[in-house]
Write the structure tokens for this entry.
Amino acid sequence: MNLDAAEVTPIMFAGVGGARLLYGAHWMRLLPSDFRVKTLDGICDDWPIEYDELAPYYDRVGAFIGVAGMDGDPAYPAFEYNMPPHPLGRGGLRMAKALNTLDWHWWVGANAIPTARHKAMEKCVRWGVCETGCPAGAKASFDLAYWPHAMAAGAKIITGARASEITLDARGRADGVVWIDRKGATHKQRAGVVILAANGIGTPRLMLMSQSGKHPNGLGNTSGLVGKNLMLHPNNEVLGLYDEPLESWKGPAGQPIYSLEFYETELSRGFYRGSKMNLMPVPSILRFLADFDDLPFDQRWGRSVHDLAKYAGSVLSWAGNIEDLPEEHNRVTLDSSLTDSSGLPAPKIEYKISANTKKSLDFSLARMVDMHKAAGADHVFSHNLWKEAPGHLLGTARMGHDPERSVVNAFGRSHDVKNLFIVDGSVMVTSGAMNPTATITALSLRASEHILATARDMDAAA
Ligand SMILES: Cc1cc2nc3c(=O)[nH]c(=O)nc-3n(C[C@H](O)[C@H](O)[C@H](O)COP(=O)(O)OP(=O)(O)OC[C@H]3O[C@@H](n4cnc5c(N)ncnc54)[C@H](O)[C@@H]3O)c2cc1C
Ligand code: SF4
């Protein structure tokens, strides 16, 4: 990837299960307002669907993979979780009390990490290393949550395959995918329907690589929007060091509690939309030092580290997930010289943090400091931007009714190539401030059912 023009570095993971092998498994639905930003705030675009249309799919995906959480969050319309939540732990409890004193919203974290054995997944034993892959097999990464079921139903997985082009037949319908194996040999997988799920960078890259005489700007790119409107959810963080053991090595690594107090637009703050904030336990002082690698050298070794050592197990982190608005200049294109090991053009990322996002970053940082102070932290350390983005890769093939302003329709179907579908974060019109995988998966289920329902008409629909 060429990141020379990227103010934030996107993280991806190539492998069976994708970036979910590394994800924290915070499992958050969008709020109803996220689908109606144009209507509510007069900016961006509304989604072509509303929360109520997606809610049944959120429910069914949650039941399938086993999401642990507590019913009744007043920020949401009512719905039910499938498993009881993970314990708040000492840290979560201390912080929840602090948020009560501030009278700010908080709720028990929702995680795609089963609190009891569930299908192919084991019960979480709280080791806390979820973001390097769960050694207990207790996290709903999709190598466990979906692939075994798909393979039992007849799906075949080909590993080490790099897709290089989606091909078309004489009538302009997608007829398959060309892919390159580890030895460099080229193959063609024929298909009646092609479904892209290569994430918000891989999907536009493959569409742009599939340029042809009929699609000179890339496949399905009549709108010119393929690769544009990249949204990355910049993250910030405030760490607090506390005066009592908080068992902050215990997992899950993500969100004993979260707060949506500053999620919605409040124009008196000086910016649109807002952030989701989640509490995370921080196991060790070394992790703390790794996060704060910009501290002066003398604070990162020797005596200073020994002084901090007493806080091992007593560190809590608030992290802000900031809503990023769609802007066409934030985009994925094909690099003119850099290639991958198969000789295919690497994606080039151009991404600037907007003035709106900067203000939201500053605002949420100050509120996370407030929360640590209300909880009585001895020391507070702030980080206004994680240079590495959390792997939320969104918006680069947006959905919509209008083919001139969107790439796919409300079911992820390409406006230009009727048997080509997209089922990843590319299709999101606005980003919300929630971790996106619950939404990506619910949209995928909805699109899959539509594909099944219209499979017989795929030719007629083209
Ligand atoms: C550290 C980290 C923590 C995260 N934590 C959370 C969290 O707590 N909650 C949450 O909701 N989300 C989280 N995310 C985001 C989450 O991982 C993504 O939303 C999710 O993985 C997106 O799924 P996807 O299938 O669309 O894309 P991916 O998981 O990126 O999968 C795409 C797959 O396509 C493959 N691919 C791409 N191009 C090609 C090609 N040309 N040929 C063949 N294969 C190709 C890739 O190798 C990859 O395997 C996190 C991400 C990271 C990195
Ligand atoms: S806390 Fe431990 S067992 Fe639970 S998901 Fe994380 S790594 Fe797996």
About this structure: The chain has eleven helices and 14 strands. Residues 11-12, 14-15, 18-20, 22-26, 131, 161-163, 197-199, 202, 206, 254, 390-392, 424-425, 435-437, 440 surround flavin-adenine dinucleotide (ligand 1) (CB under 6 Å). The two ends are 34 Å apart (CA to CA). The chain has a mean pLDDT of 94.
